Amino acid sequence: MANLTLYGLKNCDTCKKAMSALDADGHDITMVDIRADANLEQKVPMWLEAVGPDQLVNKRSTTWRGLSTEEKSEVEQGKAKDLLVANPTLIKRPVIETGADVYVGWTKDVQAVF
Fold first, then answer.
1. pTM score
2. What residues make up the domain containing 81?
3. Which of 8, 57, 112, 114 has a beta carbon 3.0–4.6 Å from 94's, enabling a disulfide?
């Protein structure tokens, strides 16, 4: 099995579900706290290129609801990087890297891959 890197938050229920399921399937997982330990300056541009802002930005988060209309419009204008780096909780979780691919969230489509 490939070594997976899961970026998320330790107290995020979706991240916990993903970790449990991947672990039960025998995957070797490295958990990286998206707030404390992730190099977002490096990772966010790669993730945006891989999946795009529509998938990466969590528009249902409390953080998103607290943004100004101007900040939200930056995402629509393709300027999501700085906003995501400054507000890690805006990143939809978990972000799972396989080495070759990037998956966001723990939807049925993502679960089917693993």
1. 0.93
2. 3-113
3. 8
How far apart (Å, rounded) are the C-alpha atoms in residues 96 and 104?
Answer: 6
Percentage helix, strand, coil for the chain under 3-state DSSP, each rounded to 5: 50, 20, 35
The one catalytic residue among 6, 12, 67, 69: 12
Q: Decide: helix, strand or coil at residue 2.
A: coil
| 58-83: average pLDDT | 91
Please give the structure tokens belonging to residue 79: 């300027």
List the CATH number of the domain containing 23: 3.40.30.10
Beta bridge pairs of residue 102: 97
Domain count, the chain: 1
Tokens 């900040």 correspond to what residue?
Answer: 71
Neighbouring residues of 57: CB distance < 8 A, sequence distance ≥ 6: 64, 75, 80, 83, 84, 90, 91, 92
Higher pLDDT, 2 or 26: 26
* Known catalytic residue at 12: yes
